[in-house]
Amino acid sequence: MNIEDKLIIFDTTLRDGEQSPGASMTRDEKVRIAKSLERMRVDVIEAGFPIASPGDFESVQAVARAVTDSTVCGLARAVDRDIDRAGEALREAASARIHTFIATSPIHMEMKLRMQPEQVIEQALRAVKRAGRYTDNIEFSPEDAGRSEIDFLCRILEAVIDAGARTVNIPDTVGYNLPHQFGELIRTLIERVPNADKAVFSIHCHNDLGLAVSNSLSAVLNGARQVECTINGLGERAGNAALEEVVMTVKTRQDIFPCQVGLDSTQIVPCSRLVSGITGFPVQPNKAIVGANAFAHESGIHQDGVLKSRETYEIMRAQDVGWSANRIVLGKHSGRNAFRTRLKELNIEFNSEEELNYAFSQFKELADKKHEIFDEDLQALVTDTGIEAENERVKLVSLRVCSETGETPNAQLTLRVDGSEQHASASGSGPVDAAFKAIELIMSSGAGLQLYSVNNITSGTDAQGEVTVRLDKAGRIVNGQGADTDIVIASAKAYINALNKLILKSEKAHPQLGDV
To answer: How far is CA 369 from CA 365, 422, 431, 477, in A?
Structure first.
């Protein structure tokens, strides 16, 4: 397709999506998601904010090494040390982009930057020119553009394009704009900036009013040719525009949109599940495209229509976004090769034979508990067992819970902490409460429980339960996840998973250096 006809998909799940409280990812988890995005043929992957922490730098560097078909991008404030750090992290990328930004709204310039407009333009130009030392693929964002003055936006965009920016991104940083207003802003900027034809106009919309996708699509109709978005709509506060919704709207309504996307949409659901599993953020059942009910029909009228002709009530095919009709795949008699082959079909790969062996042993244990193993079970199993299991300082050895009508529930627990087994017993208002209190008797973490959520992975009374636990300690928020056919054991796994993140990954706390 011609460049004018192509809608560039810029995914920022690994950067803005990770800024969702509790959604921090390890380096290996970021690489897994990046490879999934690459399989989807996402054009640009924003891998992180290299200056934010040593861990973020290493993650961007690892993604840059692992990805060859997509452009890998690093975010940087309009500050020399940020630009240099991003350039260093992206050095080994097959295709690299530096994305630099500075605030341009009156409230941000006055209250946050303490700078005059001319100073802001000067610093933006310096940043773009410095980024040119590392790559000619430079993106510039005027942060809080949605509340910036149009004349000033025109001035700074013209200047940075002249300085070498080949993409200019217009962010609705606080989700303030309405669709007709935001579309008009994009159209006006393209018309008024004299050298607009030398850059791709991009948008980055937040979902504070639930309008991120609508604002993004309005901008596309008015000339934007890059959309910044995230899997499942993850992101700061209420999140970002959901990639799956933007992509499938453009694909489905080609009668309206004068552009096309080059993504393999069949990879959307597998990638959604992967992101949900790694971050611990479950997808609501009625979520568009990737929710469990997205293609379900309860009404008799709807069922009758779909049976006669799918198009009566479905505007897209479930298979086109990655839903599979054949979901029962393995059982207790399945061998290692069948297990490996099915995981490969699900785009799940292992870094070593040891990881495969460990996952296979967990699969066998699960197969002894339930007769039919679904794709969703395999996704949860790999997520549950693949989070650096060999490095976990705390592991669940055994758990016995007694819950009886009229009696106070009691939990007896054994944990392996740094290789040494420790035991505890505690009572609680319920079996899960008792298990958590027993864990705390051993760990004394001092963390507060902010969220406890249970979802069934598949249907049936033998289905695995998937538990998400959110802990908060001194402002450090982490999510833990666990899955098991026994919901109390799944809960204990999730709590312990969160504790391991608190212990092992404290260096990943976000300094919140900035956001676009």
So the answer is: 7, 27, 21, 33
Tell me the C-alpha to C-alpha distance, in Å, between residue 190 and each of 140, 214, 425: 15, 19, 66
Same domain, 133 and 185: yes
Q: Are residues 234 and 221 in the same domain?
A: yes
Q: Which residue has the tokens 């489905």?
A: 252
Domain around 339: 328-385
Of 225, 258, 291, the residue that ends a domain is 258
- C-beta separation of 380 from 497 below 8 A: no
Q: How many whole angstroms separate alpha carbon 386 and alpha carbon 460?
A: 25
Element (H, E) at 74: strand 71-77
Domain end (from 385, 404, 430): 385
Examine the domain organization and report whether 413 and 353 are in the same domain: no
Asked whether residue 47 is domain-assigned, the answer is: yes
Domain count, the chain: 3
Secondary structure of residue 170 in the 3-state scheme: strand
- Domain membership flag for residue 265: no
Both structure tokens of 458: 């598949």
| Residue 228: closest CA among 13, 36, 35, 1 | 13
101 and 193 co-located in one domain: yes
Write the DSSP string, 354-406. Answer: HHHHHHHHHHHHHHHH-S-EEHHHHHHHHHHH-SSGGG-SEEEEEEEEE--TT
**Distance between CA 25 and CA 21 in Å, rounded?**
11
Tokens of 25: 């990812």
Mean pLDDT by 10 residues, the chain (516 residues): 81 93 84 95 97 94 97 97 98 98 94 93 97 98 95 98 98 96 98 98 98 98 98 95 97 96 93 88 88 66 52 72 64 78 75 80 80 73 57 89 94 94 96 96 94 79 83 86 90 93 60 57
Contact partners, residue 208, CB within 8 Å, separation at least 6: 174, 175, 176, 237, 238
- Round the CA-based radius of gyration of the chain to a whole number and report it: 24
Same domain, 490 and 354: no
Is the same domain home to 142 and 252?
yes
Contacts (Cβ under 8 Å, ≥6 apart) of 459: none
Neighbour-count burial for 145-182, b at 16+ CB within 10 Å, e otherwise: bbbbeeebbbbbbbbbbebbbbbbbbbbbbbbbebeeb
Q: How many CB atoms within 10 Å of residue 279?
A: 25
* CATH, residue 436: 3.30.160.270
